[in-house]
Design brief:
six-stranded parallel β-sheet; homodimer; alpha/beta; Rossmann fold; 284 residues
Chain lengths: 284, 284
């Protein structure tokens, strides 16, 4: 496994792989890897011949009040995990390599970014689009794998690639969960034992929604209300949002009628950890 | 010479050239080609093995009051001219191929776009950045050639490539002029014989500025005043702007002191033709 710190080295290594006829797979991460990330690597390997994992905690997607400085980092552990799953190249640049000066370019996306997490994290998706543009232009992957856990990010990236004609195929990877249902996240490390125990209500609430819909409930507000009540049983939980939206455009759905896919998404604070989770259901 | 109309064909043709080890040169145009464009093609040929010329009048860089519908077009002439200069591929898509739906993504650039032409053409450079992103992602050129005549566009594109790490080298091509000094432009076709005769004042005003600076004049306002007076001798001329700015960041220069490069840029209406021109001078 190779490791690069600069853009120039990264391009040289990847150009070499491409010259050998290899297809490039890409998994962008902020490091502190868990099994969810490693599944992204497995999927990338299944679709390419040379897998690049970037490890970069991107400052432009954090607001000043968020956890950029405290975001967990453990490079040596990440390196071992990447190697164990057959990664070909880790690209782990310093902030100054990616942002030698402040970008004058801003990328914005209408309609998809002002809801759900975007509403609570102003500028977050602009920062994501900026760094993904840069990383795509540095790595020039054939395929890139993003986790379904960040459902809004996935929808935004897909539309971004379509709108700007990036020559990259985006693959969605299913959310990986702990045995009790909690979605894996680098931020789970922030949870106290008590919060960790209570955090299972998130997946339970999503499962409750699924059960209700399967039983015929079609009123989104009623489903959300039951989810809120269930999550309220966890004393440490503070709901940021629970929303039911259309998968394709992230616009709210009031009645789950017609044939379509809905995204049931939530963000809930446990102490300083803001956890997100979601499920996608096909209504028919 | 090949001609493609779709993104898929274009990618296939260029992938084939790249497989043969060819470096890709790119000249994005809005068609109605003149000798200035053809010089861009010559330069692209000098830096690559396979030259792609795009011909696409990009609607997103025109405001509703501008000349998108009336912008001059003559595809058969453009095709002959491209062929005569050894173009390998013309990519001439329909609007619906490039914009199957409205882009939700907006690209903006701070500081460089709100002056000069950007001040008079709100949204213009957002449209340029959008189409250039798309074209770069479709063509994936090694080098792209842009004319110095659109000096602000050139500065913006260079910074855009730098900020987003596009793997493209930008080459600037000198302005090509008619024998009487008028900068070549597709919009010169709009000029009446009388306006065409008077339009030589633009280059004369730029030359006057050069002479003044060479003679030691360092007060930008005084230089601009003399340029205004010279242009005012043309009865059909209506000055949009005359500005002296730093080449690197397009910020206004009041005194031409120190060692630096200044851009003297102007935009002047003759009837419905809005003509731009500029010179770059090294102050020492």
């Amino acid at each position: 496994m190779l490791l690069t710190r600069t853009i120039a080295e990264t391009r040289a290594v990847i150009a070499d792989a491409r010259t050998q006829g290899k297809r490039i797979g890409f998994v962008p991460t902020m490091g502190y890897l868990h099994e969810g990330h490693l599944k992204l690597i497995d999927i990338a390997k299944g679709h390419s011949d040379f897998v690049v994992v970037s490890i970069f905690v991107n400052p432009t997607q954090f607001s000043p009040t968020e956890d950029f400085a405290k975001y967990p980092r453990d490079f040596e552990r990440d390196r071992r995990l990447c190697e164990s799953r057959g990664t070909d190249l880790i690209f782990a640049p310093e902030v100054s390599e990616i942002y030698p000066e402040r970008s004058l370019i801003t990328l914005q996306i209408e309609k998809l970014a002002d809801r759900l997490c975007g509403m609570r994290r102003p500028g977050h998706f602009n920062g994501v689009l900026l760094v993904v543009s840069k990383l795509f232009n540095i790595v020039q992957p054939n395929v890139a794998v993003f986790g379904q856990k960040d459902a809004q990010q996935l929808t935004i990236i897909k539309r971004f690639v379509q709108d700007l004609n990036f020559p990259v195929r985006i693959i969605a990877a299913p959310t990986v969960r702990e045995s009790d249902g909690l979605a894996m996240s680098s931020r789970n490390i922030y949870l106290s034992p008590e919060q960790r125990a209570q955090s299972t209500v998130l997946y339970q609430a999503l499962q409750r929604a699924k059960t209700l819909i399967e039983a015929g409930q079609r009123d989104a507000q009623k489903i959300v209300l039951e989810m809120q009540q269930l999550i309220a049983t966890a004393s440490e939980a503070k709901i940021d949002y629970i929303e039911i939206v259309s998968v394709s455009d992230l616009q709210p759905v009031k009645r789950l009628d017609g044939e379509r896919q809905v995204l049931i998404a939530l963000a809930v604070y446990f102490g300083r950890a803001r956890l997100i989770d979601n499920i996608v259901l096909k209504i028919s």
